[in-house]
């Protein structure tokens, strides 16, 4: 199982104090593994935020959360055909996936060196994972996120070949679709037009947090477990 990180020294605001009309819940703290695991378990995730012309570390819980139901992804016939052209691997190129997701060529990029290093540390402790689409032994696309119990918090995805990131997402859904699938949560933070086209829906914050509490009681999906033999 994942290695328990050192406890975070930071305290996040209680949910009762969260502004019901603001996605931003808190500012500050750090990106240490214990802080990240605690935050995700509370329904928060980090992103840079600019306040008064200065950049800070922000912690968000969207008022309308983007969630992809495991039975809700829209899969076209062409995507099904494309899926046969890729090999799916898990956690074989985590750092490369995060680096590709944080490429400076991508618009609205937010994955800085600090974030890359933070999720690398989380990965080495067994909390963060990548799902990768390979073709001809070349990384063609993938995604990464944080897995805590029955929560998979998707952070970002990329592709260099058509449909590769979608194939990775489809593979992730297959990995999560076990006997606990009805209670697992695949969180994608916000619903964008692109994600909506894939089947992502909006869930009110209170509904998301209720589902999260149930999901956290579940075991990790088998592909993300680490047995005693490593």
Description:
- GO terms for molecular function: leucyl-tRNA--protein transferase activity.
- Belongs to the L/F-transferase family.
- Keywords: Acyltransferase, Cytoplasm, Transferase.
- One of its GO terms (biological process) is protein catabolic process.
- This is Leucyl/phenylalanyl-tRNA--protein transferase.
- By secondary structure, the protein is of the alpha+beta class.
- It folds into two domains: 15-62, Alpha-Beta Plaits (2-Layer Sandwich); 65-224, Leucyl/phenylalanyl-tRNA-protein transferase, C-terminal domain (Aminopeptidase).
- It has helices at 33-42, 77-83, 94-101, 113-124, 164-176, 193-198, 205-215, and strands at residues 24-27, 45-51, 54-60, 64-67, 87-90, 128-135, 138-148, 151-159, 185-189, 201-204.
- The strands form two sheets. A seven-stranded mixed sheet has the order 5-6-7-8-9-4-10, with helices on both faces.
- Helix 2 packs across helix 5.
- The longest helix has 13 residues, at 164-176.
- It is globular and about 50 Å long.
- It starts with 23 loop residues before the first strand and ends in a 15-residue tail after the last helix.
- The model has no long low-confidence stretch (mean pLDDT 95).
């Amino acid at each position: 199982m994942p290695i328990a990180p050192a406890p975070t020294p930071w305290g996040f605001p209680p949910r009762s104090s969260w502004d019901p009309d603001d996605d931003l819940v808190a500012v500050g703290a750090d990106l240490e593994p214990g802080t990240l695991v605690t935050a995700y378990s509370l329904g928060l995730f980090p992103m840079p935020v600019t306040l008064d012309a200065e950049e800070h570390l922000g912690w968000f819980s969207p008022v309308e959360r983007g969630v992809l139901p495991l039975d809700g992804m829209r899969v076209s016939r062409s995507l099904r055909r494309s899926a046969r052209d890729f090999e799916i691997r898990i956690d074989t190129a985590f750092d490369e996936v995060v680096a590709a997701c944080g490429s400076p060529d991508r618009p609205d990029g937010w994955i800085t060196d600090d974030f890359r290093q933070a999720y690398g540390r989380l990965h080495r402790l067994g909390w963060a994972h990548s799902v990768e689409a390979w073709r001809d032994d070349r990384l063609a696309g993938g995604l990464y996120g944080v897995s805590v119990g029955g929560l998979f918090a998707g952070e970002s995805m990329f592709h260099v070949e058509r449909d590769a990131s979608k194939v990775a997402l489809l593979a992730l859904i297959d990995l999560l679709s076990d006997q606990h699938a009805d209670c697992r949560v695949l969180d994608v933070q916000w619903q964008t037009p692109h994600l909506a086209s894939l089947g992502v829906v909006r869930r009110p914050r209170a509904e998301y947090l209720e589902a999260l509490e149930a999901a956290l009681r579940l075991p990790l999906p088998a592909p993300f477990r680490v047995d005693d033999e490593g």
